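hey so i finally got around to running the thing on that chain from the lab meeting. sorry it took forever, my laptop kept dying and i had to restart like 3 times. anyway pasting the input first so we r on the same page abt which one it is
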Amino acid sequence: MIATMAAIRIVIMSTESLTYKELAKRLNIKLTSARRTVMRKKWQRIKGNDGETRVLVPLVALDSHNDSHNDSRNDSQIRELQAKVDALNELLSSERQRADICEKRVVSAEADRDRWYAEANKPLFKRLFG
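ok and heres what got predicted. didnt touch it at all, straight out
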């Protein structure tokens, strides 16, 4: 039963249909390397009516390749993100200060409430004559 389940297991992935030329261009590799990659990874190939072979490439493979080869982060993007992080840190700091003030007010209000409660629960004679 276990061997049967392993054989039946199907993985459903989102794919993109590309020719070998398109794949080579997307992965920034040579055409022969694209063909070898397809064979090595055993991606499905489909021969089209136009005679071109199309490969069903998992989007995960394209995304991971783009992430690993796209190290051209702009300094301006980094500065922009850092400015946003700094602004959020300032906002967080001011909100923490506001929360501290509110907490002090709550403690003060609770103490005031407890004094009034104690006063209200005194017998009438003690309330009137101390």
